[in-house]
């Protein structure tokens, strides 16, 4: 196997309309395609994030996330931003709670975390 890049990350949400609004309106991700899958009573929303994609899925009654980011499996998604202070200010103006900005011990780059409507940890990382 010789992967070229990550094609997409998939997220399952509990409230499709709320999560769609968050990812499209608040975070500004572009909709590529929205599909309703009747046999599964599920939506699939393909979102463009730079050169990558996120697939946002809805399913009836999905189980809750086990705990905060320290469970086995995917820990969080990180999005690269040019100015972390401006991004934090914007997110806060949209009612999103954002943790304090920290500095990565290894890279000396600024980063912080916030959550999507289902509590999925999301990171912003300054270039």
From TrEMBL:
Top-level taxon: Bacteria
Organism this protein belongs to: Dulcicalothrix desertica PCC 7102
One term of GO molecular function: metal ion binding
Gene name of the record: gloA
Pfam families (UniProt xref): Glyoxalase
VOC domain span: 5-127
InterPro entries recorded: Fosfomycin_Res_Enzymes, Glyas_Bleomycin-R_OHBP_Dase, Glyas_Fos-R_dOase_dom, VOC_core, YwkD-like_dom
CDD domains: VOC_Bs_YwkD_like
Residues spanning the membrane: none
Keywords recorded for this protein, A-Z: Metal-binding
Protease in keyword set: no
PROSITE patterns documented for this protein: VOC (PS51819)
Protein's name in the database: VOC family protein
PANTHER family for the chain: FOSFOMYCIN RESISTANCE PROTEIN FOSX, LYASE, PUTATIVE-RELATED-RELATED
